[in-house]
Structure formats: C-alpha cells, structure tokens
Design a protein that fits this description.
Blueprint: H1 2-28, H2 34-44, H3 48-59, H4 79-89, H5 99-116, H6 121-130, H7 132-140, H8 157-177
C-alpha cells in the first residue's frame, strides 16, 4: 500500500511540473491573432507553427514593431515587400501596420519563398531575413552549397542565428500547441 501511495504522489507531482512548464512556455511562446493566422496559413499552404515562430522571432508579437532595417509590423515586412505583396494579392490602400494585412502579406510572402525554394524551410527563412538575392547567390556558391538547393552555411551571422532561432521556435510551437 505504501509503494502505491508513493507512486501516485510522485505521478501527481510529475503531472504538476509538466502542467506548470507548459503554462510557462505558453506565456513565452503565445498564440495570438489565431483566426487570421490560421486562415492565411491554410490559404497559402504554410504550417501555422512556422508562422508563429516567425512572428515570435521577428516582432515578439508587437504589432507596431519597427526594425533598424525598416521592417515593420508583426511579420517585419519592408515597405517594398509589402507593396509587392499587395500588388500580387490585388489589395490597395492598406497600412503596413494593419494587423490583418501585415499577416496576410507576410504569410503570402513566406509561401512564395517556400515555393521558390521547393519547400526548403531554411532557405525560405534565410531569404525572408537576408533577401532572395543573397540566398540565390549563396546557393550558386560552392562554399555555401554543394547542390545549389541546400545551404551548407549561411555567411551572414545574424541571418544564420535567426534561421536557427526560428527552427527552434517551430519545434517549441509544435510541441506545446500542435
């Protein structure tokens, strides 16, 4: 009887520790703007954990975030990329800080990059951060890619760290929510 009681006490504490850990992680890695993100993630064929990870890394869910490079909003889109997306989507007269438009354009652009790089998430994230021109150049350079499809190395330290961070965040979002 004592062994059984100890087992259930231990099990209870393990469950409590897991629940508290998940609660803490959900506070650090939130799900916000869920209906908008899920709508456009489905429409453009992008996995929601990737979108949440990207937003977490790019803006930490701050709608009015602005980077030193001029990227704006939740998904940290430059004015040039935003205008390009709006044109492709047939949308006009929308502010880059409009949450729905920023999310829609960011997810559409991420989908475009995933298509361009044949579903290679690392290349798409690197291009989202450093630009398509840089990633295209790296893929053609044997110092960074042996097959012109997969990056062996990313020469921009900030982009390399950013890609790794988003890949880690994707795993966390998948674990705690999906």
């Amino acid at each position: 009887m004592v062994k059984c009681k100890n087992f259930f006490t231990t099990l209870f504490f393990v469950i409590i520790v897991i629940a508290v850990t998940l609660w803490i992680f959900r506070g650090i890695f939130p799900i916000k703007h869920e209906s908008t993100i899920l709508k456009y993630a489905e429409e453009y064929g992008v996995k929601p954990p990737l979108v949440y990870a990207l937003i977490k890394a790019e803006s930490n869910f701050r709608e009015n975030a602005q980077s030193h490079a001029g990227a704006k909003g939740l998904m940290q889109i430059t004015d040039e990329t935003f205008e390009y997306c709006l044109k492709k989507l047939g949308i006009s007269d929308v502010n880059i800080f409009n949450t729905q438009a920023n999310i829609q354009c960011g997810i559409w652009y991420l989908s475009y990059l995933l298509d361009k790089y044949d579903g290679n998430t690392e290349n798409a994230i690197a291009a989202y951060n450093a630009g398509e021109t840089n990633v295209d150049r790296w893929l053609k350079d044997s110092n960074y890619s042996k097959d012109s499809k997969n990056l062996l190395d990313i020469p921009f330290g900030e982009t390399k760290r950013h890609v790794g961070k988003i890949q880690r965040y994707v795993k966390i979002y998948e674990y705690i929510y999906f």
